């Protein structure tokens, strides 16, 4: 089965009643966890982006408690899990400010764990990749907004 393009789907959605669209959304939410999480963000959390960011930071804090009790191998696995969670939440929002705040917070927490970033190439590469992503998103922002984040970035760089 060949999937239709987004443009074709958009054209077809215009012809469908709102009741049928509601049923389609509920059916989508039933089949995949990411669809359900995206709908949850769009319906309940998109209006309060600051609250959304704070809830993500709280969840990241909870996940980082597992890093402290593990050896280096397991800490790497937990860090990748946290990063997958953060990337998923960033994807739902789609706002560069949200992405910057979450990535900066992840790097701050990673530094606070006192993990050996220089000895292990995996941790070093993971951290450097986050810094690259932060720099690329920061370049897309207007100059007045860039200044707000530069102090936080200098702390982690």
Describe this entry's structure for a reader.
- The protein is built from eight helices and no strands.
- 82% of the residues lie in helices and 0% in strands.
- The model has no long low-confidence stretch (mean pLDDT 88).
- It has 157 residues and is mostly helical.
Task: Give the number of helices.
Answer: 8
**pLDDT < 50 runs, ≥5 residues:** none
Describe the biggest sheet?
none
Rg over CA atoms, rounded to whole Å, is 19 Å
Number of strands: 0
Topology as a string of helices (H) and strands (E) = HHHHHHHH
**What value does the average pLDDT take?**
88
SS content category = mainly alpha
Helix content: over 70%
Query: What global shape is seen?
Result: globular
What is the first-to-last residue Cα distance? 48 Å
Strand content: under 5%
Descriptors for this entry?
globular; mainly alpha; 157 residues
How would you briefly describe this protein structure?
The protein is an all-alpha fold. It contains 8 helices and no strands. It has a domain at 48-156.
Could you outline the blueprint of secondary structure elements for this entry?
Elements: H1 6-14, H2 18-31, H3 33-45, H4 49-68, H5 72-93, H6 96-112, H7 121-140, H8 143-156
Helix pairs in contact: 2-3, 4-5, 4-6, 5-6, 6-7, 6-8, 7-8
